[in-house]
Write a structure and sequence with these properties.
It is built from one helix and three strands, in the order βββα. With 77 residues, it is an alpha+beta fold.
Length: 77
Amino acid sequence: PYRLKYTWVVGDAPIETVVLWTLKEVGNVTKLSIEHSGISKLGDAAPESFDHFSFGWDACLDVLPNYLNEKATEPAH
């Protein structure tokens, strides 16, 4: 599989989370997996942050097919 891993700094917090994208061939299609870890390091803000990240990733992934097909011109948010 192909992997892209990078750190994501959450707003003004001095905490780094990690995002891992994995592309894996499954039969004649490609499976995309995204793992965003380290959110628990945000302590009491983790539950709310998780909801924000979940919404944000859903929004990004919803428009990803358009980007891959060169139909999208604006970012997800």
